[in-house]
Amino acid sequence: MAGRGAGPDFVEALARGLDVLRGLGTAHTSMTLSEVAESTGLARPTARRLLLTLTELGYVRADGGSYALTPRVLDLGTAYVSSLGLWDIARPHLEALVARTGESSSMAQLDGSDIVYVARVAVPKIIALRVEIGTLFPAPQTSQGKVLLAALAPDELERVLATPSRAGLPPYIGRSPERLAEELTEVRARGWALADEELAPGVRSAAVGVRDGTGTVRAAMNVTVHAAETSRERLVDEHLPLLVRTAGDVSAEWALWQSRPHTEVAGPGRRASGDA
């Protein structure tokens, strides 16, 4: 991994620290020093120093000879979402949608060829998959992923799909690249996507895009149901219209939020600045 930076200002130590965080995140459990070193391609002494540093900063927990992530790593992703203003805007709308449908609803964004969950309002139902903020799933196997992939330009879509998934799930072999391309064309035309037990048995969902002030799809919002309880027809006929309306309201409010004048409040001895 050394020497991967393209410029003189590239900080290899920081990149290695992030490699350690990603390695621990994909493990879904604790790892020994040897396992961290092997998964990241780092020498054991380097991996040890990085783990000790991350432990001191509070991002990693040491338990005997094993290491695991702490909830503090969520601050990194939450800071990004908060900087967009999206979660504060979306939360009441997601909660209202869940109250009307009685089903869980989430928001996700693309992370390579995966989707990463950035917001979720869940109902207590038995489901085959554990989903929480920061969870990764392969984009082509999810309704949210299909919406986000369909919004990409052709060259960007090709690059994204060529990126290996970090979700830690077996490769999906139920759909050829040609069929995926056809499905994304359909999603692009109708504005919503469906995933019917593609990610796991019993998991069925519909998703639509959430747009920023320029009209660009920046996130996706879904409704997830248990296939044994909710038919495909009910999901599309009853829940999808509510989802479309909710995503439209979130997009509209987000566009207004982005267009407002931003002013930085000055501290002592500093002058305020703004773009108003």
Show the helix and strand layout.
Elements: H1 12-27, E1 31-32, H2 33-40, H3 44-57, E2 60-63, E3 66-69, H4 74-84, H5 86-101, E4 104-111, E5 114-121, E6 136-138, H6 143-150, H7 154-161, H8 177-190, E7 192-196, E8 203-211, E9 217-226, H9 232-259, E10 263-264, E11 273-274
Antiparallel strand pairs: 1-3, 2-3, 4-5, 4-9, 5-6, 7-8, 8-9, 10-11
Helix pairs in contact: 1-2, 1-3, 2-3, 5-9, 6-8
In brief:
The chain has 276 residues and is α+β, with helices and mostly antiparallel strands. It has two domains: 12-69, Arc Repressor Mutant, subunit A; 76-259, GAF domain (Beta-Lactamase, 2-Layer Sandwich), CATH 3.30.450.40. It has helices spanning 12-27, 33-40, 44-57, 74-84, 86-101, 143-150, 154-161, 177-190, 232-259, and strands at 31-32, 60-63, 66-69, 104-111, 114-121, 136-138, 192-196, 203-211, 217-226, 263-264, 273-274.
- Major sheet: 6 strands, antiparallel
What's the alpha carbon Rg, rounded to whole Å?
A: 21 Å
Number of helices: 9
List how many beta strands DSSP finds: 11
CATH architecture of the largest domain: 2-Layer Sandwich
Shape: globular
Question: Could you say what the CATH topology of the largest domain is called?
Answer: Beta-Lactamase
Element string (H = helix, E = strand): HEHHEEHHEEEHHHEEEHEE
- Nearest-integer average pLDDT: 84
Q: How far is the first residue's CA from the last residue's CA?
A: 44 Å
Widest sheet: strand order?
Answer: 6-5-4-9-8-7
Q: How much helix, percentage-wise, in residues?
A: 40-55%
Low-confidence stretches: 270-276
